[in-house]
Specification:
This protein is α+β, with helices and mostly antiparallel strands. The chain is built from 15 helices and 20 strands. The chain is globular and about 70 Å long.
């Protein structure tokens, strides 16, 4: 709707707001589930706005009805971060590329664009994202507000690529923020879990399209730790895939290259055996522990040989997220990596002989550079990210809570900070210790959203210490 024909939102009767929003409102029995099908909620209403005016109307409706609005993208977070029992605003249709400046290597996009969509649009202009995580299913705003990351000891979390944003605040005002204008709002929003407002537009730094050459080799746990510093600095983007049951580290080292593409891969080994046969063994492992052991031995063997490939950057950064899963990931100071991994190795070897447990694989280990973003797990420190996973073969659940609790206890000892998109039990008192600017963040929230319009159950629990059950939205209680 053209701004010339807009009326003051306050003048629109309540019933008329509902009528206008009806075409972008999901059926009343609609429910929301995250990608892994581990958390589910039934909001009072789910809206899928098609333009910014719809967003303004939704916030006006929420203010009048006294409801929380949770802004949600594709729901890839393996936690209840995206869940609410009140109003949900899905950004599915807010996914356009607005401007491209190839010379300055900057783009302006709507926050609801997925990374897959962004890759395709950037490629048309000979551009690419600077760094990426292991998947591209998420929205850009989701990535930014959780300080999601790729790997590379000299590369920051993906939020560091943001130049500026336009945010729709709780009172309906639109605010431009950057490091120079409204810097406090910028630093609070660029990793703010969607709690400062609705991110409408994001100005992002990118670079010219590039290929990556990934070299993969397998090393023993001891050899990897003995050469840790050398390996981490041996490429622009180094990451490890650790198989504790076989004491093997799969080392991935990726660098920019001008070589032509040679993707590599094999349907029989990668798909039939690496996907289908491994999943069957994981499923049988629910009932017979030996099959779980066979699964890890097979998976470890399949990646034991040295290999290399060259492909478009995003294809190398990303890995196939094969099965529904429970997962958690924590960030620790880089200097704590070796003692932490040794402690984890001891813990996993103890778990492996426990007949009640079915630990899965691999453990992904990545790295990032320090930054100045208030709630970034990499704030003021070189960082090592360690993530574990428990798959749900064919959608069947598997024990994970005891395994994850032990993992988290160890990471906490080594000054661990949980990944914001993952489930955790940390509350405001711990965050005050972990994040020097936690109080500054809360002050910004109080300024821009004093009535808590964007404060969903996750925020109430973890940031304000309210007694909201961490398993409130659990698919399986």
């Amino acid at each position: 709707m053209s701004s010339r024909f807009k009326v003051d939102l306050h003048d629109i009767p309540l019933h008329k707001l509902y009528e206008i929003l009806l075409p972008v409102t999901a059926p009343s029995n609609a429910v929301f589930s995250n990608w892994a099908e581990t958390f589910i909620c039934a909001p009072l209403a789910i809206f899928e706005p098609r333009n910014e005016y719809h967003c303004e109307l939704i916030l006006e409706l929420a203010r009048r009805e006294g409801k929380v609005v949770r802004v949600t993208g594709v729901g890839h977070s393996p936690s209840d971060l995206a869940c609410t029992n009140e109003f949900m605003l899905r950004t599915t249709h807010l996914n356009r590329v607005l401007t491209v400046d190839k010379q300055k290597r900057r783009v302006v996009v709507q926050g609801g664009i997925t990374l897959h969509q962004l890759h395709a649009s950037l490629a048309q202009h000979g551009l690419a994202m600077i760094n990426l995580g292991s998947i591209s299913d998420q929205t850009l705003a989701g990535i930014v507000t959780t300080a999601s990351h790729g790997t590379g000891i000299d590369y920051g979390v993906m939020s560091t690529q943001v130049i500026s944003m336009i945010v729709l605040l709780a009172d309906g005002s639109r605010v431009y923020c950057s490091r120079n204008e409204q810097p406090d709002l910028f630093l609070a929003t660029v990793c703010g879990l969607g709690s400062t407002g609705l991110i409408l537009n994001i100005e992002l730094e990118v670079e010219s399209s590039f290929h990556l050459e990934e070299v993969l080799e397998s090393r023993s746990f001891e050899d990897t730790l003995s050469n840790l510093k050398q390996l981490v600095h041996s490429s622009e983007h180094t990451r490890f895939f650790w198989f504790p049951a076989t004491d093997m580290m799969r080392v991935s080292m990726s660098n920019r290259t001008h070589e032509t593409k040679r993707p590599g891969g094999s349907w029989f080994y990668d798909s039939f055996m690496g996907y289908h046969l491994v999943q069957l063994l994981l499923f049988l492992g629910i009932f017979f522990q030996t099959c779980n052991t066979w699964a890890v031995l097979l998976a470890s063997w399949l990646v034991s040989s040295a290999s290399s490939r060259v492909d478009d950057s995003y294809r190398v950064f990303n890995v196939e997220c094969r099965y529904l899963q429970h997962t958690t990931e924590w960030a620790i100071p880089y200097e704590n990596v070796e003692p932490c991994l040794r402690k984890l190795r001891k813990y996993f070897h103890e778990i492996l002989v426990d007949p009640r447990e079915r630990p899965h694989f691999p453990i992904e280990i990545r790295f990032s550079a320090p930054d100045d973003i208030w709630l970034s797990p990499s704030y003021n420190q070189q960082t090592c990210w360690i993530g574990i996973v428990q798959y749900k073969p064919y959608g069947f659940n598997i024990p994970y809570r005891k395994l994850f609790e032990g993992f988290e206890n160890i990471l906490s000892v080594y000054q661990g900070r949980p990944h914001w998109a993952k489930a955790h039990k940390i509350g405001p008192q711990e965050f005050r210790t972990l994040y020097p600017h936690f109080e500054d963040f809360l002050q910004v929230l109080q300024k821009v959203d004093p009535k808590g319009l964007f404060r969903n159950e996750y925020m109430q629990r973890h940031f304000f210490g309210l007694p909201v059950d961490g398993r409130l939205f659990k698919q399986r209680k």
